[in-house]
C-alpha cells in the first residue's frame, strides 16, 4: 500500500498531489509513530522513504503544512479516546473494573514470562483457573 501511495504521488505530479497529501500522509504517519512490539522495521523504513520522496516532490512548506495537520488530527483522536476511557470508568464502573483486572492479570503474566526468560531454571507458579470466580463482579 505504501509503494502504491508513493507511485500515485509521483504519477500525479506536484500540483495535483497537494490536495491528497493529508490522505496519503495519514497511514505513513501512523506507521512511523506506532509503538507495537511486533513492528516490522521494513515498513517503517519504507514509510520514511516515501515521506522523503513526498517532501522533495511537493516542497518543504506544503509538506510541513500537510504533515502538521495529520499530526494534529492524530493527537486529537488520541485525546478523544483517552477522554472516552476516563468517562467510561465513571459511567460504567463494572466494565472499568473488569478492564483493570484484565490489565493487572496480563501484567503479572508478562512479569512471570520475563523472569522465566532471564532465569530459565526458575519456573513461576501458574495461576489456578477459578472459572466462574473470575467472571464475578468485583466491588
From TrEMBL:
Cross-referenced InterPro entries: SSU_processome_comp_20 (IPR052575), UTP20_C (IPR057525)
Domain U3 small nucleolar RNA-associated protein 20 C-terminal per the UniProt entry, residue ranges: 1-116
One GO cellular component, as annotated: 90S preribosome
Protein name: UTP20 protein
